[in-house]
Amino acid sequence: MNDLLKNTLLIAIHEGAHILKHYFEGSFEIRSKDTLNNLVTEVDKKAEDAIIEVIRSEFPAHFILSEEAGELSTASNYKWIIDPIDGTVNFAHGIPICCISIGLELDGVIIMGAVFNPFMNELFFAEKGKGAFLNNKPLKVSMNDQLESACLVTGFPYKWATVEADPISVFERFIRKGLPVRRLGSAAIDLCWVAAGRFDGFWEYNLNPWDIAAGYLIIEEAGGRISNFKGEPYSVYDKETLATNGNIHEQMLAVIANLPV
Ligand code: IPD
Ligand code: CA
Ligand code: CA
To answer: Is 39 found in the same domain as 84?
Structure first.
């Protein structure tokens, strides 16, 4: 069964990627969703349709949760969690930092996930208990255990008004420590780049399960740690995400909680 699930996942993600590549730098329709810069393009929809078609051709009864299509066929213990383009604003501006993210949950546990940035030809994949890979090479988080020499990445919500916490003050605390903090514009890529050891830590408020489902498993299988902002065990339905190499996790938690490090 797992081989069929994996094949289906990989075929689906490549079908989606084909569509992203076809339209990138070309013309396509863009519109705002709930806020001006929370964008959706016709490419998000086309890629999503192609991905769902592949999954449904093999597993017509499986639960699908996809960013633009919402919830489909909910009565199954298998749930495919799909972001057809993570980094839509980048995509719409011709910035090649965007990807497709697909996670697969079984009975509430993420068992498989893939994130594919076709513009850098980087395919991240993980299966529970079997490790994480970048283009088939095993992935490992960084070894750094000092926050002061860490390279971090974060993101900011487009729907600012709905965020209770103050993302800027946490950002400011890290910046005032003189740390390099990047903002790539794709949470799924942020997570994978922590898994690959390029970043030591990532945090963000208010992500959605389709941003995180695949990256969550990729981080864990690469030896990293992911939690909420209290350091508690993580669920992809949480609104607080802290993902690190594990070594600097407590130090980042202390900064987020505004405690002395
Ligand atoms: C967004 C990206 C971004 C994050 C936003 C997400 P989208 O997803 O992951 O990095 O900061 O919160 O909404 O809209 O490009 O799929
Ligand atoms: Ca997203
Ligand atoms: Ca998206």
So the answer is: yes
Q: Whose CA is nearest to atom 12 of ligand 1?
A: 157
Do residues 86 and 204 share a domain? no
Cα 42 to middle of ligand 1, angstroms: 17
- Which residue among 207, 208, 210, 239 is best mutated to probe the pocket of ligand 1, counting the most ligand atoms within 8 A of its Cβ? 207
Six-digit token pair at 232? 């508690």
What's the CATH code of the domain at 237?
3.40.190.80
Residues 184 and 95 in one domain: no
CA distance 116 to 118: 6
For residues 118 and 176, membership in a common domain is answered with: no
Q: Which ligand 1 atom is at minimum distance from the Cα of 38? A: 14
Does residue 75 fall inside a structural domain? Answer: yes
Probe target for ligand 1 pocket from 91, 102, 186, with the most ligand atoms within 8 Å of CB: 186
Question: What is the phi/psi pair of residue 244, to 5°?
Answer: -140, 180
Identify which of 157, 26, 36 has the alpha carbon closest to the alpha carbon of residue 94: 26
In whole angstroms, give the CA distance from residue 194 to residue 190.
Answer: 6
Our count of domains for the chain comes to 2
- The better pLDDT of the pair 195, 164 is held by 195
DSSP codes, 207-243: --HHHHHHHHHHHHHTT-EEE-TTSPBP-TT-SEEEE
Per-residue pLDDT tens digits for 109-155? 999 999 999 999 999 999 999 999 999 999 999 999 999 999 999 99
123 — phi, psi (to 5°)? -110, 110
d(CA 80, CA 64): 5
Is pTM, for the whole model, over 0.90?
yes
The domain of 68 spans 2-138
